[in-house]
């Protein structure tokens, strides 16, 4: 890291601490005080043997009053540039090894949030911290799985997995072995020589997941990865993802608009408000059947959590709808 | 996917003699019936593909003989073929083909080598596009042949002006297709590259270039067609050798069968060139969608 960026980050941190000190309003909007993060860490440590029980006071990911706005287009008649505020004062801590799901109404800035975590975008205000260090760009310790798979169509499944390793500078011979190993992990060893167009949607997404995991990132960022899949494939992949997460102990931040998916996958579910997106509430999910045989989707706990998240979300969806209508009318 | 999985997951039951005879025919019947059927299909395909050509040649042969066309201006195909054979034997045809091939291939290759990188640059970097865009628009809409007198004035009547006009004609299809290809690279792939922290050169090499190849090749093939097209026209206006010169010269000397022979050679050259480019394209872009 350069000295310039370090000084910038220190000044940013001082301003951020002063900012967090004053308005009491932020406490009500952002319901993820530091305590919630550590509490969740405890559940992660006990409930799942992920081997990351050594989580210290510094969370793996911390979103500190993060805001993001885009310079708006000059709108037709008036020609005024009103910036679009995608995210405002987002506060969220994710402990190491934790599976956090972010759910929110469409257009609330979920994907923007993931771009910020991935380092593809810079926050307009606040800080995105990874192990206490501000995120300044993409890095090998984070890997993203996209909704549209983002496989290179001219490469086979194995070569696609190797692509991530090439970028990470892994020597050629090691690449093939690692790619095979991770294709095995997602159950596609037999399909390593197939091109993406020869694979089904579910298989493509599994290749993409294998590619992300092969680089051995600490954090897996998933941007609605199962949204384009049919219901059955989605369920299978959800179960597989949980299995992989339990085996590898990765920190996962998973974006979705599906309440069922959020409750099923997440240890914690962060519900975002409609635009501008803030964290409305973070719900701790307790599903004892997770990872065990039987369908956790039919348990009473699942239903209760589902209802809880649904109620939180539906106010926001209604609000988003009225906002949209007003925008159309104006 | 499912079709591929089928045979793997369901292994054929090892031969149970009683109901055994039933499965083998099921397995064999398609194979037995496909071979003749495939041959028949191939023959039919070959017939459909050559029928139109054969019909044209037959018409060409009979129409002058039956007096439907003036035999002087449209000699029967057999006479043209004889003339072609004589031109080939006395070596004149080869001289002209060589001259034309050299000019078109040089101009074409130079155009591809210069234009593909330029197109990638223009497509990728908006400032470059904004700067060069209007200029390109003007040149693109100036017909290559309209500039022939200019090239002759500036570069003389020799090889340079002909290679240059071919180069000029080849640049546009390649350039426009390359620019378009770069602009339409799947944004998620670019995002992937960025999230993997690929340096710009690697991103070009590993993502943008392979993603663009099919569209670039479309442009290259269009350029291949216009390379021959423009060259023949240029050779007709002012040249001492080349197929265009042969066509024009034969017509002036009233050697009509030779003229047709030269025209046929041009067609064959064009078809051959295009086929070669298609073969190269198949080689380079292994994608089969």
TrEMBL record, chain B:
Its main location: membrane. Residues 10-27 have a biased composition (Pro residues). It is a multi-pass membrane protein. Residues 97-277 form the ABC transmembrane type-1 domain. The keyword Lyase does not apply. Residues 1-33 are annotated as: Disordered. One of its GO terms (cellular component) is plasma membrane. One of its GO terms (biological process) is transmembrane transport. The keyword Transport applies. It is found in: Cell membrane. InterPro entries: MetI-like (IPR000515), MetI-like_sf (IPR035906). Keywords: Cell membrane, Membrane, Transmembrane, Transmembrane helix, Transport. The chain crosses the membrane at residues 100-122, 142-158, 165-183, 203-220, 227-247, 259-280. Belongs to the binding-protein-dependent transport system permease family. This is ABC transporter permease. It comes from Streptomyces cacaoi. The lineage of its organism: Bacteria, Bacillati, Actinomycetota, Actinomycetes, Kitasatosporales.
